[in-house]
UniProtKB/TrEMBL annotation:
Its main location: cytoplasm. This is Holo-[acyl-carrier-protein] synthase. Mg(2+) binds at residues 8, 50. Transfers the 4'-phosphopantetheine moiety from coenzyme A to a Ser of acyl-carrier-protein. The gene is acpS. Its EC number is 2.7.8.7. It comes from the Bacteria. The lineage of its organism: Bacteria, Bacillati, Actinomycetota, Actinomycetes, Propionibacteriales. Its cofactor is Mg(2+). It is found in: Cytoplasm. InterPro entries: 4-PPantetheinyl_Trfase_dom, 4-PPantetheinyl_Trfase_dom_sf, ACPS, Ppantetheine-prot_Trfase_dom. It catalyses: apo-[ACP] + CoA = holo-[ACP] + adenosine 3',5'-bisphosphate + H(+). GO terms for cellular component: cytoplasm. Belongs to the P-Pant transferase superfamily. AcpS family. Residues 4-76 form the 4'-phosphopantetheinyl transferase domain.
């Protein structure tokens, strides 16, 4: 059963401008490993976290650092912990599907939470 779906788009040039104006923003929303990636990959991970938030019904009190987009070979997936792991459990989420792409200056993420 599908519990939630989230989609987000991040303009890569806007992401680059934001992290140049406020370098701390990358460290606020990305883990150390995510922040070490190129800007287009950072933008995709930011979009992924936004999409996950939407799929989990967008409640407050969720920490950006409580999820990390990791690559398992060629597949990407989330590692959830803390507030996001608790929220997923509350909703009965057993599997989180994640798809990322970046082309034509934008990064797009789609998340499906399945119970």
């Amino acid at each position: 059963m599908i519990i939630g779906i989230g989609v987000d788009v991040c303009d890569i040039s806007r992401w680059e401008a934001a992290i140049q104006r406020r370098p701390g923003i990358a460290r606020k929303v990305l883990t150390d490993a995510e922040a070490a990636l190129p800007a287009h990959s950072q933008a995709a991970r930011f979009a992924a976290k936004e999409a996950l938030y939407k799929a989990l019904s967008g409640v407050g009190g969720l920490s950006w650092q409580d999820c990390e987009v990791v690559t398992d070979g060629t597949a990407v997936k989330f590692e959830l912990r803390g507030s996001l792991a608790r929220r997923a459990k509350e909703l009965g989420v057993r599997t989180v599907h994640l798809s990322l792409t970046h082309d034509a200056g934008v990064a797009v993420a789609m998340v499906v939470c399945e119970g």
